[in-house]
Design a protein that fits this description.
With 120 residues, the chain is an alpha+beta fold. It is built from three helices and six strands, in the order ββαββββαα. It has a six-stranded mixed beta sheet. Strand 3 (48-52) and strand 4 form a beta hairpin. Helix 1 packs across helix 3. The two termini are 28 Å apart.
Length: 120
């Protein structure tokens, strides 16, 4: 995987957003999230990945339309993990929304599983 761009392209649409609370400090949650999302050697080619520990931001970009942005924010009683699914298709932007259907359908359960894993 190569580095994902930090900045969103001018043409983009947030398709779905999720947020969940964890009873742990952001300094503990962010490394766990990074380990869970970081590409593994030999786990398939393609895509882009960026980790910005200072902002507690992780960007995963795959295919022609998908960008996932994960943030870990401080909250009084722990952390909030945010996840956005973003259509970054520059050509045929409308088709990115159509192509996203299966990802959007699976996303609530996948995000909940991710939070459960991070809390363990």
């Amino acid at each position: 995987m190569t580095d994902a761009p930090l900045d969103l392209p001018e043409r983009h649409t947030v398709l779905r957003s999720f947020a969940g609370h964890l009873d742990a400090a952001p300094t503990a949650v962010y490394p766990r999230l990074l380990r869970a999302l970081e590409p593994r050697a030999g786990a398939g080619a393609g895509g882009r990945f960026l980790s910005d520990p200072a902002q507690r931001l992780i960007v995963v970009q795959r295919g022609w339309w998908y960008r996932g942005e994960y943030r870990v924010l401080a909250e009084n009683s722990g952390s909030v993990v945010q996840y956005e699914i973003i259509n970054v298709a520059q050509v045929a932007h409308w088709a990115g929304t159509w192509a996203a259907r299966s990802v959007l359908t699976a996303a609530p359960r996948a995000f909940q599983a991710l939070l459960t894993g991070l809390g363990a």
